[in-house]
TrEMBL record:
Domain of life: Bacteria
InterPro entries named among the record's database cross-references: NAD(P)-bd_dom_sf
Species per Swiss-Prot/TrEMBL record: Ancylomarina euxinus
SUPFAM superfamilies named in the record: NAD(P)-binding Rossmann-fold domains (SSF51735)
Name of protein: SDR family NAD(P)-dependent oxidoreductase
Amino acid sequence: MPYLNSISILSCGWLGESLAVNMLEKGFNVKGATTSLDKKERLAEKGIDAFQLRFEDLNDEMKKFLNSEILILNLTIKDIELYKQFLPLLEQSPIKKLILISSTGVYKNSVKPVDENSELSESVWVSIENLMKDNLNYQTTILRFSGLFGGNRKPGNFLSGKTVKNADAPVNLIHRDDCMQIINEIIKQDVWEECFNCTADTHPSKKEFYTKASDIIAVEHPIFDEEEGSLSSFKLITNEKLKRRLNYEFIHPDLMKAL
């Protein structure tokens, strides 16, 4: 099977499965990987070329899975040794373009707005980003997502009944609809060798946002500890580079309305 116009998504969890269906609807040949047999069957029923694979499966099935033009690496795995083991197989594959889903957790806390040039933490994601992007066999774009919500992932459940410090600290979140659309725009506009912060336009306080989020689904409010923490232990992620470079308008720019 030719690999052109083909996208491989590793893996098809909460975001990846929806993304796979979205890409299929846009006319791509989509390969989707999951560790679950039930999920594999569900993906296949939706028309996706489904694989039951683990990241560490460096076998013929993984080679078939990587027979695509574009790879979307959408993993929560933080073991950099697994990425190092995976890399030679990726280098030998037809993959020419890589979208690496990372996290805005790579940044240190800051009293100033955080952009793509802000100081990085010692997060393992920084090492993973560096490993995957510094490669001449394919072009990479890194998407640093803030906290994800949408579908059955309701923010009201995130902190319900929990004690929360820094009640006035800003919230950094992005809706799944925007995650998928941003990935679509990267591919459509052929934007590679870039790094983007992906977060909604607005940043309400934790207290304002999670109180309303709890009310909407009728669960217990978080307990906001006004005495502990300080406003120096937060970060406000900016998305200006993303909007400027892709001419992107968010589907859900306002977090309070997105609830």
